[in-house]
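Protocol step 4 of 6: structure prediction from sequence.
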Amino acid sequence: MTQRPWLALATALAAVVIAALDLLNVAPGAGGRALPLLIAAGVLVCARRAARLARALETAPDPRALAAVAEGADAVVTEPDGRRQIRWHGLVLRSNSELKIAKELERRGALFLTSARIRLKTESGLQTREADFLVFYAGRWAILEVDGPHHVHSQAADAWRDARFREHGIAVVRYPSAECYQNPRGVVDAFLSGLEVSARETDA
């Protein structure tokens, strides 16, 4: 909707004219009689501006999406379930922290999959689980998980899932999302170094 500053200006001008007529005794009592109309016009102007502001806030770009694009993401979309998808070179990532880790894994020459969905055998049958990064390096497979704030409420489920992966010989290493965002090189160096050590121990 286009803004209409003339509406506020017309309301203010009408108030001045009516007050002047009242003071000059040209139209005695006009100010009192017009006061409800002026108040209504003022409320209308404020309501229209509030509605425009609300719509602008609804359609304003997500700062996280802008940051992801600035980091090199191809696109940021929202899935029907409300989850974000950061698309980067055909891969799907869930957060800006994951994007930084993906770029660092690529820099180190590691083979990796993102948002890897895996079927796991559970007590209640086969279920699908998603790993942030399934990485192959130094002849070893391992999972690198980027734990955001919501993982605090799913620690028991995460520990159970990690144990299932370990049963298949796949280690799971978890790092806080903030650390992945602030120090992706340090996180990836530590993760890949752990795989190198594990490979040496296996070969010994």
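Step 5 (inspection) to follow. The helical segments are 5-23, 30-59, 63-70, 96-108, 155-167, 177-182, 184-203.
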